Amino acid sequence: MRIDVFTLFPGLVDGFCSDSLLGKARDNDLLDLRLHDPRDHTSDVHRTVDDAPFGGGAGMLMKPEPLFASVEAADPPRPLFLLGPGGRTFDQGMARELAELDGFSLLCGRYEGVDHRVRRHLVDDELSIGDVVLNGGEVAACLVVEAVVRLLPGAMGNAESPVTESFGASGLLEEPHFTRPADFRGWSVPDVLRSGDHARVARWRHAQALHRTIAARPDLIDARGGLTDDDRALLEEFPPHPYH
């Protein structure tokens, strides 16, 4: 997958995407990450990329010329998303949609935003990571890249992980997980997980995922169309674990 990121701080994105699973994905040619600095497409000695807004007001805006020139020179994969508050909220469903593409691109805003002609005539859409104010789009870009790339076949060591984790194929939060020691400060691992009965373990895990989701995110249950008869039977078979 090719992902192009347009940013005034390419080192921020490159550094984050060089470690852990993202770094391995790049080394294994699963991710072709290309970073573009609009300052490289300025014509003045100061490499100016911002200017005061017409009509006055606080702050500076990113100028259209360097952004258009940078995008046109790169000819990046589309869609090209502007990272900003006015777009569709990025979630796991959108991550899965983007993971089905051959590539996409992200434009990181800075200062008070971008000239409106960028939003209107250069990008294809706007993407938001939520109702929060950041200094720029780089952190958001890193979030989007990681969420999408980890869904690519071969990007994670365990192919089952993207399916069973929170917001995965089941649409539920994850159940509690445990590792050694079996007893820690008097808190014991549930007997069912040490039983060796894999079918019972699977039922327990699904029941705990249901219990946790009902308690913490009932909206996700509603999004699945409510509880099925099988769900209700599991909830009766296995009480909620106390470590939610």
From TrEMBL:
Main location: cytoplasm
Binding residues annotated for S-adenosyl-L-methionine, in chain numbering: 109
Ranges where the tRNA methyltransferase TRMD/TRM10-type domain occurs: 1-222
Cited InterPro entries: Alpha/beta_knot_MTases (IPR029028), tRNA_m1G_MeTrfase_C_sf (IPR023148), tRNA_m1G_MeTrfase_TrmD (IPR002649), tRNA_m1G_MTases_N (IPR029026), tRNA_MeTrfase_TRMD/TRM10 (IPR016009)
Compartment(s): Cytoplasm
Protein family according to the UniProt entry: Belongs to the RNA methyltransferase TrmD family.
Cited function: Specifically methylates guanosine-37 in various tRNAs.
Record note on quaternary structure: Homodimer.
Name recorded for this polypeptide: tRNA (guanine-N(1)-)-methyltransferase
Source organism (scientific name): Ilumatobacter fluminis
Gene: trmD
